[in-house]
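Regression report. Comparing outputs from two consecutive submissions.

Submission 1:
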Amino acid sequence: MSLRTVDQSGITGRHLCRQGAGELYSDDNVRACAGAGFFVLFGAHLSGKIVLLVLILVIVNIGYSAAGTLISAISAATKRNEVMLPILLFPLLLPFISLAIKATASAFDDRPFFELLNQLETMVAFCVIFVAAGYLLFPYAIRED
């Protein structure tokens, strides 16, 4: 697929997503544009991997949300909370995101599920740790003394 094909498909998708000026940024239009772009880039390679990619996406969303909520609650009590959040969150999420990238690459490379299972188990362990830490520490993180 050439760059011109991707550019033309992006222009076509953009015109298809614009139904009216008032509805340009509605949720349905944004989802349609994102879905069209994803299909243009990866459509031919997604034959039987949709369930696996959705599983990876759900695990990553849970872990990222749990860690972000906990760290944002901790950094909200500081004077420079807009600086503290990325400083605390980035090192915490870096191994998690690298596992997600490896898992997604393995899914696109048509590797067997048992090879991907080690990465998925580690990602689920990160999720459990983030959710449990958030559940246990959130009342202490948001209390004001």
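Submission 2:
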Amino acid sequence: MKRARLNDLTIRSAAKDDIDGVCELINAYSMDIHGVSNDAKRNVEMTWGQPGFRVDTDTRVAVTSEGRIVGYGEVEDTEEPHVRVGSWMRVHPEFREHELDATLLAWIEERAHEAIAQAPEGARVTLSQGVPDADAQAQELLKDSGYNAIRHFIRMTIELDGDIPEPDWPEGVAVRTLVLDEDLEDMVNAFRDSFQDHWGHIEKPFEEELKEWDYWIRNDEQFDQTLTFLVVAGDKIAGFSLSDPKFSEDPDMGYVDVLAVRRAWRRQGIALALLHHSFQEFQRRGQKRVGLDVDAASLTGAHKLYEVAGMKPTRQINLFGEGIEGRQGSQLADAGRRLPFVGRAAAAVRAGGSSLSEAIGNSNTIYEGIMIGRSGAHGWPQNNEIR
């Protein structure tokens, strides 16, 4: 097969009718890196529709002359105070040797730079991107572009082929399923209290956070409130688990999106009991396994709890990040001139002979030379960076 060149590609904003092509790209990447398919349509639709996200300004696709999408990048800068910007990109395995990823990263950096004007004066603005540990090329690009590995997240799973221990609940609590219209506000309050000491936590107004949760739940056709279990002490939610009935990469795997225990109720066995309760329900429904993602350096030692529950690590996501405030000048000197980009990835594109308009300008540009969260793909606010 004749090798395609970068000047055969067009870079433009994504459009709503590109969603199938973007999902085909994500699936091809997953097959190449992980050896499994990925049905990402639900996740992409939810991300594109979330409050504050604009497909025309926050995405880019690389398209061949035949209309095939072979590269995709996005920036998530939807939340006040605009000090933490998430990003995400995928390149088709057939185009991984074309510097397509560097071109997409250059656009990501330029788009992320816009957050500086919206952030509080003097605040440190950071740009981050999660990359599968198996994707050595993407990690090398980020390192060469000045990013550092700042966190590691682990995918853990358990096979449901044996007896699941009975949940051991502490005295004074009861467990029940979510009643969405009655419990959502209390559940969000419980989440806020549970994750105050979570890495990367940024306090936000309650109404804003409630709006986000309302969107992710009510617009998700797969959401099943009977898989959200609340541990109630009196009239307070002491903890809860929220799960998906199936995972985008494995329809036989249930997925625990959120496991939260209020600080006053920690170390009383609630988290382990919630896991056992969830495992039993997934087993009853015929699922073969259950998975979740966890911060490897969690202050609460969550990964150790999951090991006690019988879960084992199956994948690692590495989160890379860098500060982007005041980046226009010195760090771009590598290219020998001042450039209208934010980072060294962009400088590398320019040094290779592409101007800004040639590289990532308007939607008709022809190239010369390509963002937890939900559940490892897109979605819940705390998972967006580990997709």
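Expected: both submissions complete independently.
Actual: both completed, but the second showed a warning that disappeared on reload.
Relevant detail on submission 2: The domain at 6-153+318-386 is CATH 3.40.630.30 (Aminopeptidase).
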